[in-house]
Write a structure and sequence with these properties.
alpha+beta, OB fold (Dihydrolipoamide Acetyltransferase, E2P), 9-stranded mixed beta sheet, 5-stranded mixed barrel, 5 helices, 17 strands, 18% helix
Length: 271
């Protein structure tokens, strides 16, 4: 296993340029929270400390296990992802670090996790999982710190075809792929060129085809439009640009994806 070490801030400064640009934040500013020993790993992105605090590793999503959900089929490599997180974290001291909302609706901690082994350097758990290709970057509007640094680790794993990046289940989907219409309620990466940008009230639409009722569309919330503008990107300037989006596929007419913050979008024609 190749594990990325050190504090998230140090890794953000150490990573170099790629031929893709994240539309959102590149900063990685965290504050220390709780600490403890990891006593249990639930799945590839969730663990439990010795104070009974359940921790969701924010900024990434590992392949999912059923975990008692009726009819749920494990995603490919879910067992391998859990085993990898056990190797990284189980029985070791952990420091939680926060950069946004600290609890979810299940009262789980939403934290970046630094593992502190008895010997060797600290390990940023999120980076270690992404570097093996056993997770994908997964961000939220209220937890945007360090996404840029994690995205760069994900890109290296993807370029090397590691883990999920060698499995068709996790393939990046072309925006023109008709199969998107059948991928309702699935977390996907979708790539294509924006044909047009439309606005209807406070919502903006990135259209990837000429027929909005059947072609893939990204739906930008008011908050996302504001955040894009704060980062110097007017949504109207995305027309003609090749982009990669990540989020949950929905169906409103044709397949669509709700974009709530800029870190869901990568600009692919920057340099």
């Amino acid at each position: 296993m190749t594990a990325s070490t050190g504090r998230p801030e140090a890794q953000a400064a150490a990573t170099g340029r790629h031929g893709e640009r994240l539309a959102g934040l590149e900063q990685c500013s965290l504050v220390d929270g709780e600490a403890g020993v990891v006593t249990h790993v639930i799945d590839g992105d969730t663990l439990v400390l010795d104070n009974q605090l359940e921790v969701r590793l924010v900024g990434m999503q590992a392949p999912k296990l059923p975990l008692g959900r009726p009819g749920f089929i494990a995603w490919p490599l879910a067992t391998e992802a859990k085993a990898a997180l056990e190797t990284i974290a189980l029985g070791k001291a952990a420091q939680l670090r926060y950069g946004g909302t600290r609890r979810d609706r299940y009262n789980r901690a939403l934290a970046h996790v630094t593992i502190l082994p008895e010997q060797g350097d600290p390990v940023w758990a999120q980076s270690a999982m992404l570097s093996q290709g056993l997770a994908r970057v997964y961000s939220f509007a209220d937890n945007r710190q360090c996404v840029g640094a994690l995205m760069k680790v994900e890109r290296e794993a993807r370029k090397s075809g590691l883990g999920v990046w060698s499995d068709p289940y996790y393939a990046i989907r072309p925006a023109t792929d008709p199969a998107l219409a059948s991928r309702h309620d699935v977390y996907d990466l979708v790539e294509g060129r924006v044909v047009s940008v439309g606005e209807r009230g406070p919502i903006a639409y990135l259209d990837f085809g000429r027929d909005w009722s059947t072609d893939f569309t990204a739906v930008l919330t008011t908050e996302a439009i504001t955040a894009f503008a704060e980062g110097g990107i007017g949504v109207e300037t995305l027309t003609g640009q090749r982009v990669r989006l990540r989020g949950w596929i929905e169906r409103h007419g044709g397949p669509s994806m709700r974009v709530t913050h800029p870190e869901q979008l990568e600009l692919l024609d920057q340099w």
